[in-house]
TrEMBL record:
InterPro entries: Ion_trans_dom, TRPM, TRPM-like. It comes from Angiostrongylus cantonensis. This is Ion_trans domain-containing protein. One of its GO terms (biological process) is metal ion transport. Residues 12-57 form the TRPM-like domain.
């Protein structure tokens, strides 16, 4: 504990000395990556150990202010100017911008060189909405709007059919929930016990994507052929799109719909189509093709691709 306090005090003294000697070089040192410390930098390490006195130093505060304002060259009244530009987007073009953009993330270097005399209108709008201060106030405004709409929905009588306001509030809630799930996963990924499993699951999802594409191709090929041959007299309906995927998808889990594989001849009567005689009311020209295609589909999908996916998961878990 004594060594920790001594190190914190020495780091603060060193920062103060460097800042008085050359503030621009000190800013670069604060954001330089340290290979022996997991490619972190001094500023991020100070945040990790909660070194408040180090972060409260004018040098760190200047750097944090640069990061907070992004590419905006605004200091006094920045909040009011950003709010005005959010309410009236063309006003963002009148703000001053840095030509060498400071990233909203902790940068590796601070470069104050001027690359171009000025920014275009599109570049200014992009830089304005990418600034952390803009994102913060934009989030605040949208959250206030959400609370207002949500309160309105709760206070009035619920209509039979959902309104536009209800769809807006529901969309916001879904996005908000997804964002919190992402933050929870980021926290769990750093957990000493759950973290490795979260990382393993993430790698599995990436590996699974390619198998899913192959499964989708085979499923669509079989589903379209099966639907077209088995039900040749269908009229256009969006249910046709569902039927392409519906039964072939559940076949992947073992439901083969055995009673519907080949029903031609089950009822014992005969029909005639263009000179050809078929037995059973469910007989259609080429009715023998879907069972053959289903056999090929199950061999490729259930046996080949699914087992390939399991093998990939095993490789990921052992790597």
């Amino acid at each position: 504990l004594v060594n920790l306090r001594s190190s914190c005090s020495e780091s603060l003294q060193l920062l103060d000395f460097c800042y008085r000697e050359d503030n621009s070089q000190t800013l670069k040192l604060l954001t330089a990556q340290l290979p022996h410390w997991g490619y972190q930098n001094c500023l991020s390490l100070a945040v990790m150990v909660n070194h408040k006195r180090f972060l409260a130093h004018p040098c760190c505060q200047r750097l944090l202010a640069e990061l907070w304002h992004g590419s905006l060259r605004v200091r006094s009244g920045s909040n009011l100017r950003v709010l005005a530009a959010l309410l009236c987007p063309p006003a963002a073009l009148a703000l001053a911008y840095k030509t060498s953009r400071v990233s909203s993330e902790i940068p590796t270097n601070i470069d104050d060189e001027v690359e171009t005399p000025s920014l275009s209108a599109v570049a200014k709008m992009r830089a304005f909405y990418a600034a952390p201060i803009t994102k913060f106030w934009l989030w605040c405004i949208t959250f206030i709007i959400f609370l207002t709409l949500f309160s309105y929905v709760l206070l009035i009588e619920t209509p039979i059919n959902p309104t536009t306001i209800e769809y807006i509030t529901l969309s916001y809630i879904v996005v908000y929930m997804v964002e919190h799930i992402r933050k929870v996963l980021e926290y769990l990924s750093a957990h000493p016990l759950l973290g490795p499993y979260i990382q393993m699951a993430a790698k599995m999802v990436v590996s699974m994507f390619y198998i899913i594409v192959l499964l989708l191709v085979t499923l669509m090929a079989f589903g379209v052929s099966r639907q077209a041959i088995t039900y040749p007299h269908e009229k256009w309906n969006w249910l046709l799109v569902r039927n392409i995927f519906y039964k072939p998808y559940f076949m992947l889990y073992g439901e083969v719909y055995a009673g519907e594989i080949d029903t031609c001849g089950d009822e014992g009567d005969f029909i005639c189509v263009k000179g050809d005689t078929f037995e059973g009311t469910n007989c259609v020209p080429g009715g023998w093709i879907p069972p053959v295609l289903m056999t090929i589909f199950l061999l490729v999908a259930n046996i080949l691709l699914i087992n390939m996916l399991i093998a990939i998961f095993k490789c990921v878990s052992f790597s």
